[in-house]
Amino acid sequence: MGVELVRELKARGYEVMAWDRAQVDITDRSAVENALAHFDAQVVLNAAAYNQVDVAEKEPQAAFLVNALAVRNLALACRQIDAQLVHFSTDYVFDGEARHPYVEDDPTHPLGAYAVSKLAGELYAQAYLDRALIVRTSGVYGPGGLSTARGNFVELMLRLAQSSNPIKVVEDHVASPSFAPALASRTIDLLDRGKTGVFHIGGGAAISWFEFSRLIFQAAGLKPSLHATNEREYRTPARRPRYSALSNAKMERNGLDPMPTLPEALAAYFAARGK
Ligand SMILES: NC(=O)c1ccc[n+]([C@@H]2O[C@H](COP(=O)([O-])OP(=O)(O)OC[C@H]3O[C@@H](n4cnc5c(N)ncnc54)[C@H](OP(=O)(O)O)[C@@H]3O)[C@@H](O)[C@H]2O)c1
User: Fold this and answer.
1) Positions of the chain with pLDDT under 50
2) 233 CB-contact burial (10 Å; exposed 0-12 / middle 13-18 / buried 19+)
3) pTM of the model
4) How confident is the model at residue 274, as a pLDDT?
5) Terminus of the chain with fewer CB atoms < 10 Å: N or C?
6) Distance from the CA of 88 to the center of ligand 1, in angstroms?
């Protein structure tokens, strides 16, 4: 996400200073304060996170340090320099029991260490700042993922398709996969309009991971051996919400353009990937 945010901010004429973990470790409070003190920022966007949902069950402290306590560092530093914090959170703050796309006011109920740490990050941002903007998103994929170690779901599917082994993807978990460049641009739209509080920006469609992989292979022109599986067959250390689609209604009520449809977003992804 960080890559896409920087690209979009620069395209809109913002002066941007960007750091990676080697330059500023956000768990180090003085490193955060020093970095921001040298740059009279009006806005601080935090796209850093500990995102290893399953590993977090073994090392919850590591997840809490980055996703919660480091957000406190950022919030305190923003308060010192009177900057606005834009922070990203997740659909995993919900338990997945709903059968409608989650709205911002739905009660949160995280199911594991990663999810608890992300909700704590939201709370820290809100505890120290009156005008933080918190954007919850879901299943992010974008060209930025081509250059990171973690990659993204689309690249994972393409990698799996290179072997002749059958590919199994869960069909009983539904989310709203979000195209990172569109998410970055909607986030900056909110910022430009002076919005604060919690906003959901998902991909705009509630879709199972199995159906999403079908769309990916369609867009890529591939026909691998793809099979549906389910939570019972495909066990993971962390519990995940079975249904975590996000409603973009609040964002749209505030005048933002709807997110591109999944076929449009995947076409844009593959066009950017081909370049
Ligand atoms: N990806 C998704 O599907 C998804 C879904 C819902 C919400 N989100 C949220 O969206 C935001 C962006 O996620 P993403 O997918 O862009 O994540 P990502 O690709 O995993 O990138 C996270 C970045 O944070 C950096 N980082 C980790 N610990 C750090 C630290 N202590 N100090 C400074 N940087 C640190 C990582 O650096 P290293 O590479 O060096 O570790 C990495 O560059 C996060 O808040 C995430 O929780 C993501």
Assistant:
1) none
2) exposed
3) 0.96
4) 76
5) C
6) 9
Query: What pLDDT was estimated at residue 71?
Result: 98
What is each CA distance from 58 to 10, 50, 54, 62, 113, in whole angstroms?
39, 13, 8, 9, 9
- What distance in angstroms lies between residue 27's CA and the mean position of ligand 1's atoms? 13
Q: Which one-letter DSSP state was computed for residue 144?
A: G
Separation of 21 CA from ligand 1 center, angstroms?
Answer: 10
Write the residue with the smallest CA distance to atom 34 of ligand 1: 21
Check pocket membership of 148 for ligand 1, CB cut-off 6 A. Answer: yes
**Residue 92 structure tokens:** 């995993």
First to last CA, the chain: 19
- Ligand 1 centre from 240 Cα, in Å? 18
Q: Is 114 designated active site?
A: yes
Note the pLDDT tens digit of each residue in 27-49. Answer: 999 999 999 988 889 999 999 99
- Read off φ and ψ for residue 86, nearest 5 degrees: -110, 120
The rounded distance, in Å, linking the Cα atoms of 221 and 225 is 13
Distance, C-alpha 165 to centroid of its chain:
30
Let me know: does 238 contact 208? Beta carbons within 8 Å.
no
pLDDT digits (tens, 9 = 90+) for 78-118: 999 999 999 999 999 999 999 999 999 999 999 999 999 99
Which residues, other chains included, contact 125 with Cβ-Cβ below 8 Å and sequence gap of 6+? 71, 74, 75, 85, 87, 132, 134
- pLDDT averaged over every residue in the chain: 95
- Single out the catalytic residue among 114, 124, 141, 243: 114
Q: What is the position in ligand 1's atom list of the atom closest to the CA of 1? A: 16
